[in-house]
Records
---
Amino acid sequence: MLAAMSSTQHRVAWLEAKAEKYVEDAQVFTDARSSDLQVGGLTGEQWATVYKAVAHELRECAREAAELRARSWWRRG
């Protein structure tokens, strides 16, 4: 049981850390947004929006994983 909790906590922490990295990268794009910055057909501002959306989804996955683990633990107990 402890190993399963630890594994879930590790995954949640990984998702949250990944989300934070995407937020940091989005800030880099935001700070560098100039009209001539084009990467893959998107402007820096557009990339920042994409990265923020990915960070949001990662945080939602982390939240859902934490809640799902808590619910299944309570059902067994």
---
Amino acid sequence: MSAPVLVLMPDAEARVDLARPVLGTTTAVRLADAARRAGFAEVLLAPGTCSIVHGARAVSSGEPIAAPALLAFESAVIAEPLLRALAEHPLAADEGYSLGDGLGRPSAWWTGHLACVPAELPIAEELPWPADRGPADLARYVYDEDRVRVEAVIWSEGEGAAEGAASAPGWLRAIVNRLADGGRPLGQIELAATMTAVLAGPAALLGGRLGIVLGAALLCIGVQLAAVVPALARLVRGRGGAGDVQWLAPAVRPFGHAAYVGALTYALVAEAGRSSVAGLVLLGFGAGAAFLSLAHARDVLRGERPRFELPSADAFAARLGARLPAWSHSDVRVEVVALALAVTGAPGLPWGVLVGAALARLWRWFIAPRG
């Protein structure tokens, strides 16, 4: 049996501008991109659709198709796992079922054989849903208030991922949504995160409590921004392939650590009244911490296996038979601790946190298996 095709139908009931992106791309482009990944052979645009979908073929009403097909409103968003389940379990040639969203509105029609393009979306009995699938896997963007449901479907595809913000708190998810709708290329966001984290060093060189706190804050912001890039990439991957970009994001944290610990080391060594021996010890530890961070950045930028990656705090706690509290789950644990200690105005405290992180990197390399 031939692979199914996706036919995008116009939604006359839509009261929103379907050309406006939702989390980085339009509903039609997102649905078409997900269908291609799920195994659909082709994307067709029925007469009256207003969406621009690259690689899709425009068809006219009555044009022969003669293939399994999913007809969906261009305003619909359907989770990729549901699309894959449909593609892998085609219907008999004489079967056809409707797919409704969480509000019971018809959003798509799935058939085992589409003879020709219909003038409007057929309505039939509701689909017997595949296992673990249901109306929550699709949403139709008709009114402004539907956007919340559309975003929920889009985010649900990344809930199983451990990276980025797939399971982030609401405030962080709102930031990712804003970045996705901003339309900026991921490369620009990664560069901004890198520059922000690296500026932690010059900020700390300003001296005093203000400089130390400002540097720690910039480090937190840069690392957090880089941490959401993978989740952001999944949201915008239908936008001209930009979602495949993973350029500087993995190196933002080590670059920031190297810059900040280097500046704090200078501040400590330059303090009046410090003996030359103590200064050399501080310089050695600070330089070693910066070197290990830069070595990790080099590994990830070259695509090699990272030898000096920070070990997982959760895994360490599990080895001790403990469990970290839920509120401590964050992409910026180390940086937040450094920021909290920087408020004291003593450069040695955040410096000690970053040196401790460097020693953890060294331990990770020391116990890692060969090869």
---
Amino acid sequence: MTAFLLLETFKSQSGVSLLAVISVVIASDTGHQGEAIKKIIDKAPDVFKVLDVILFEKILEVVGDYQPEIIVCTLREWEENIDVLSEIKNVCPQTLVVMITEKEDPEVVLHALKAGVDSCLGSITPGYILRSLEMICRSGIMIFPRMLKPRIQRIADLSEYASKRIPEELTGREREIYSLLLKRYSNKEISQQLFISESTVKVHVRNILQKIGTKSRVSLIDN
């Protein structure tokens, strides 16, 4: 893709009129990662211009003055930085925020998107970083597919079991737990979802299995 075409595509998606190449700020919680990303992006000077490479902890102090088109964040410890991620859009509302993380966990993606991140990339090879940034510029959002596979599978399971009728003999709480069992939730996940103890969940599960005449939760799902 030529620089002109990429810029025009970015302009049409973001609504920002660009007279120069796409400006990028790189923020990393480890300095060497940021410099490595810069070397890769610098290979496309007709498309991207790296304005600065900074430590992630300094990002809110710096990006307000730059107002870059893209911020690339390389994070090893995303949990410790989630609050800062959520503030970036307040400082740079028009900026696309890209997070590169080694933790290929669907929960990481969901937390990051909730914090305002536009794109999450997993452990990708350096050669794909430029291509990924180009795709992000064209579409405005990109999620590394492998990172969401477990969550997509859970959604598929949800759809598969949504048509199962909840037995009328179950109590209100048992109905809630029954629905979560069909979604393959563990006892721990059910307790977190309903804010009850795991021991309470186990009691309800035992009662549910007795009422519907099933010996195990596996056979409950398969029936």
---
Amino acid sequence: MNQASTPLVFSEGKTFNYLIPLLFCGIASAISFVLFFPLGIILAVTCVLLGSIESGLEFDAEKMEFRKFQSLFGFKWGNWRKINHPDSFHLYLSIENNSYNTPMLTAPAFYGSGPTVKSKSITYNVAVYTKRDEKIVIYEFSSYKMALSFMNHLRALTSYEVVDHIALKMQENQQKRMNRRR
């Protein structure tokens, strides 16, 4: 069987995309154990299932299709998307900063808003540019090593241009440092 006919599978493992429902389920399970034991058991099993969900990417280079999948005990689900007229594949670094105010739990509301919580999300985005100048983000990897592995597989399986903008930027920065030392 041709290697390109089977989809590439990149599993990131347990990414805890369902962390908030998992926490609420855990709290409800703890309360239910005290009030109604059978419901507590059902919620505890649900918590285990939510914590066991894995996510990843499947890519079929022959058909030019991909899907972001969720997996539970080997059963995968997700919608396949076709890439029409691909031109090139690119790897980018994406940094998102979020800040939001949290309510103060110890003082009344008239004392002002609570402290500001800041979060930073770093992902390594693999995108495809089509001949119609569309940019389609295929997947947002949490690991540069896994994103680079995916790009290397793309380079080996397809004849399209594959560009690693992160490596190019690192080379540029290294060249600037070398020029400053002179």
